[in-house]
Amino acid sequence: MKRILITGITGFLGANLVRYLGDHEKIMIFGHSRRPEAAAGLFGEKKVKMLPELSKEVIGGQGIDIIIHLAGIAHDLSGKYTEEDYFKVNHEKTAMLYDEFLQSGAKAFVFVSSVKAVIDQTDRVIDETFTPSPKSAYGKSKLLAEQYLTGRRQEGKRLFILRPAMIHGPGNKGNLNLLYKFVAKGLPWPLGAFNNRRSFLSVDNCSYVMEKIIAGNLPEGTYMLADTKALSTNELIRLIGEETGKKVRIMKFPRFLITGAAAVGSLLRLPVNRDMLAKLTGDMVVSNEKLLLNLGQSLPLDAEAGLRKTIRSFNE
User: Fold this and answer.
1) CA quadruple 233, 234, 236, 240: dihedral, nearest 10
2) Between 20 and 30 A from 242 (CA), which of 20, 37, 104, 136?
3) How far apart (Å, rounded) are the C-alpha atoms in residues 171 and 309?
4) Is 11 in the same domain as 64?
5) pLDDT tens digit sequence for 144-198
């Protein structure tokens, strides 16, 4: 029986990971969250034991084998968080937990970082050899946490650093959900002139990788996580149209008009701004070759199947 601790367990990824692993006969799940009261209603009959603190004494006392650290502040474009918030939560609190891990009996630490720890946007394919140069506070805070962990590695303690592309699945509240609502209203898509390529990661594929780590079937190290195929936003819009039964109209307004409007939006601090445009039209292709090589097999869901599953969940 493997005893795993999931921090941030009531968040999007944590809740989906419990759903994926909750019925596994050889896994016992412990959790920690800033919202412990939400756990009982969220997981229903799932057997998750919530821990009030994350000290080495508690970790050791519960016989935790593996810590999966999901807790953190996600990349946010609304300006809700300050730079200090990102560094305090994503870097400092990760470092504190890792120090407790090193002094406990747990044997493996899984840190879910982000592709943003490498770079915010690029037209090059990103892999593990890419030299990190993040620009956002979110990306910098994740990279600092990575560097702290790798700088304090100890023999007998396995460390996994996972850099996922944009994760999607049931309960997703990000850009994919916004695109779904846009298409569902029958509105024409105005950004057809941008023919970008982006990588995505199904939450089921992400959970599958976690399962392999728990089972000891993946060597320790740093891994980029992504579905195998990259898609354009235009292709994604068409997929949403097919799943919703809506006729999709993709319009190709001149790019200079769109970028100009986004620049004005940035100056006026409007929701439609340069950052939002970059997320919708920029390139971010992530290679999963190292992951697949070490797994020795492909991921369970291909990119389109995973996206279709997520899109259908929005209407449930």
Assistant:
1) 130
2) 20
3) 12
4) yes
5) 999 999 999 999 999 999 999 999 998 887 788 888 988 989 889 999 999 899 9
Q: Answer whether 12's CB lies under 8 Å from 35's CB.
A: no
Contact between 106 and 158 under an 8 Å Cβ cutoff? The reply is no
Q: 19-33: per-residue pLDDT in tens?
A: 999 778 889 999 999
Write the CATH number for 292.
3.90.25.10
> What's the pTM?
0.93
Q: DSSP readout, 226-260?
A: --SS-B-HHHHHHHHHHHHTPPP-B-B--HHHHHH
Q: What is the tens place of the pLDDT at every residue in 94-133?
A: 999 999 999 999 999 999 999 999 998 899 999 999 999 9
CB 162 within 8 A of CB 225: yes
Residues 278 and 222 in one domain: no
Strand partners, 3: 28
- Please give the structure tokens belonging to residue 127: 């892999």
Examine the domain organization and report whether 237 and 100 are in the same domain.
no
- 148 is in which domain, residue-wise? 2-171+200-226
Residue type, 205: N
- Return the DSSP state at 29: E
For residue 146, how far is the Cα from the chain centroid?
A: 15
Q: Do 72 and 209 share a domain, yes or no?
A: yes
Q: Identify whether the C-beta of residue 30 lies closer than 8 Å to the C-beta of residue 62.
A: yes
- What single-letter DSSP state applies at residue 116? G
Same domain, 103 and 21: yes
